[in-house]
Write a structure and sequence with these properties.
- The protein has about 230 residues and is α/β, with parallel strands linked by helices.
- The protein has a single domain, classed as Aminopeptidase (3-Layer(aba) Sandwich), CATH 3.40.630.
- About 30% of the residues lie in helices and about 20% in strands.
- The strands form two sheets. The chain has a seven-stranded mixed sheet, with helices on both faces.
- Strand 2 and strand 3 form a beta hairpin.
- Helix 2 runs parallel beside helix 4 and helix 3 packs across helix 6.
- The longest helix has 17 residues.
- It is globular.
- The chain binds pyroglutamic acid.
- The site of pyroglutamic acid has 12 residues, from strand 4 and helix 4.
Length: about 230
């Protein structure tokens, strides 16, 4: 068990934002294109650190753990591309399953394996997800609560993040996962697919970081789904 990582300097702890390298034959990944633009900015009084993760089972989590050790953040938002989704998706739950439809960038294709062998079935996001959705809608940005982050590398990273924060044992440090739509340039190569431009994604991330830092208790707003 790692000791409390903050030792009293929590007030100076940064916000860690992660995005991913391209995968699945795409030239770019809009998650990295957005988070990199916030690197070094101050939001809600905290400095933003942006890092890029590989799209690979195992290696992505290894890199994330290194980023957590190096930056000792107060808040972590991991961001990934969900081609085909029409809205910013605030993920509610990470599950302990790797089940890859396509190989990752290192050629691995795990099927029905746990992310963490002795981990619990699932972790909830510790972000105030309803408050984040409300903030995005207020800002004129399309947003939804998502009940599944899938079973590919994004869910792997989300589960690993929540497991790691739980293990480190500082309940002040909150984290979660946001899926974003294709960029317009990507959607141009996928006929009919919805997209969101990078400026809107950056604005959304800023609003979510601000709101997460300012919200201790989540709001009680409907955000469920029938299927
Ligand atoms: N999206 C993938 C992995 C990397 C990314 O940006 C996913 O949704 O699992």
């Amino acid at each position: 068990m790692t000791a409390d990582v903050h030792n009293g300097d929590f007030a100076d702890a940064p916000v860690l934002l992660t995005g991913f390298e391209p995968f699945g034959g795409e030239a770019d990944n809009p998650s990295w294109d957005a988070v990199r633009r916030l690197h070094g900015e101050r939001i809600g009084g905290r400095r933003v650190v942006a890092e890029r993760l590989p799209v690979a089972f195992g290696a992505s989590l290894q890199r994330l753990r290194e980023c957590l050790d190096a930056s000792r953040p107060a808040l972590v938002l991991c961001v990934g591309q969900a081609g085909g989704r029409a809205q910013l998706s605030i993920e509610r739950v990470a599950i302990n399953v790797d089940d890859a439809r396509i190989a990752d960038n290192l050629g691995a294709r795990p099927i029905d394996e746990p992310v963490i062998g002795d981990g619990p079935a699932a972790y909830f996001s510790t972000l105030p997800i309803k408050a984040l959705r409300a903030a995005l809608l207020d800002a004129g940005l399309p947003a939804e609560i998502s009940q599944t982050a899938g079973t590919y590398v994004c869910n792997h990273v989300f589960y690993g993040l929540m497991h790691e924060l739980h293990r480190r044992g500082d309940a002040r440090v909150r984290g979660g996962f946001i899926h974003i739509p294709y960029s317009p340039a990507q959607a141009a190569r996928h006929a009919g697919a919805p997209s969101l431009d990078a400026d809107s994604v950056v604005r959304a991330l800023r609003a979510m970081v601000e709101t997460a830092l300012a919200t201790d208790v989540d709001r009680r707003l409907a955000g469920g789904a029938e299927h």
